[in-house]
Description:
Strand content: 15-25%
CATH superfamily: Luciferase-like domain
CATH topology: TIM Barrel
Distance between the termini: 12 Å
Structural class: alpha/beta
CATH architecture: Alpha-Beta Barrel
Shape: globular
Order of helices and strands: EHEHEHEHHEEEHEHEHHHEHEH
Number of domains: 1
Largest sheet: 8 strands, parallel, barrel
CATH class: Alpha Beta
Number of strands: 11
Number of helices: 12
Amino acid sequence: MALPDLKFGVPIPQVFLEGKADLDLVRRSVQRAEELGYDSLWVQDQVHGHVPLFESVSLLTYASALTSRVQLGVSVIVFPVRNPVMLAKTISSLDQLSEGRVILGLGLGPPLEAAPFYTAFGVEPRERVRRFNEGVAIMKSLWTQDRTDMDGEFATLQGTGMLPKPVQQPHPPLWIGGQHPNAIKRAVRLGDGYTSAGPTPIKEYKEHVLLARQFLEEEGRDPDTFPISRRVYLCIDKDADKAKSVLFDWFSQRYPWMVSQNPDLIDELGVWGPPDQVAEGLADIVAAGARTLILNPLQDYVEQMEILAEDIIPKLRAASA
């Protein structure tokens, strides 16, 4: 049986470590990505913290007005701290505004030890799985039913309707992220796809794909209709050492706690070097089961997107055909 076609996405510039947002870069990157034929544009989700970045759905809405074809995804919204009724309305509206181009990624969020993250939203961390499951049921019902009646643990809906419905039927695809086996099982049970976070070591990602396939078989679901994606942090440069240092410096600012805990983090998750070396690293991830790659340059966004589209992606498509 032929595998589903490979798809390639790129992030919308969203994280501005120096503090000043570059809207010209955002516009140029979004429009050039569509011109180059990328399948999707992606954002991350972070409402509070010490890293300056745009709110995810707001940025996707801006990108939808600058494009007409490319899909628009968030990987992933921390769902337990979001009101599911409000998020259902926001995503339904964005799906209408973009004429049916939204992919909604959902995740549990930080581990239970990160209690201040949740309490900032008035959420008890130990409720997060129950909130997640109930919230997915609420959104699906609001998107597909004329009226929703639900007596939940966290919300009560009595004859609640929501219009307009999303363009995509029955609803925008839900790609659920996470690394724990329970999260992967949840993705298979409740979602339409599985997405892996970029900071996950590639070796662990391969294990997660195997688990997803096991759970798909147990649920009787066709793996060819269940997308598996992976964000890949990369840097293309003929000087491999220079390229690797770009990754290390960026991660040291964006995820300093990860680098301090694991100085070899870049070796475990990044792809860098001349185009042929980058193509080889990406091919390894494709071989592990990824059918959507979110290719995440960390500098020279437009230039790196062009090299990827012109020199690297054609090789990956040809090898997987």
